[in-house]
Amino acid sequence: MVLDRQGYDDLVMYLTQNLALFEKPGQIKPGAPTVLELIEDVIAENVMLLCEQHTELNTEQRSQIVREVDGIVYDLQEVLSSVTNQPVTVEQHAFIDEFAGLVKNLFDTAVAESA
């Protein structure tokens, strides 16, 4: 659906261009989740929103979306493996929110094109 598209390649490039955010210390809010916890939560929220907005999706399409999202989260875990268990900084939080929104946009576009 999206993993084999140019948009996903561009998204991975965007991640690599912003890796410095994960290499330097930053401000951490008290009680901040770990990088991985935040990634999983924000991506899951966006997937639920996607499915709520696209009620026309059948079970097979929803399953495909979940499988691909699992692949995206796995890719993020691999790239960010050295920091996934560290508390997320304010800057990292903003980036992860934006990244998850871009992932949702990729799926929104794919769903619209398949309709």
UniProtKB/TrEMBL annotation:
InterPro entries attached to this UniProt entry = Uncharacterised_A0KLC6 (IPR020979)
The protein's matches in Pfam families, at most eight in alphabetical order, are given as: DUF3802
> Under what name is this protein listed?
DUF3802 family protein
Q: What is the lineage of its organism?
A: Bacteria, Pseudomonadati, Pseudomonadota, Gammaproteobacteria, Alteromonadales
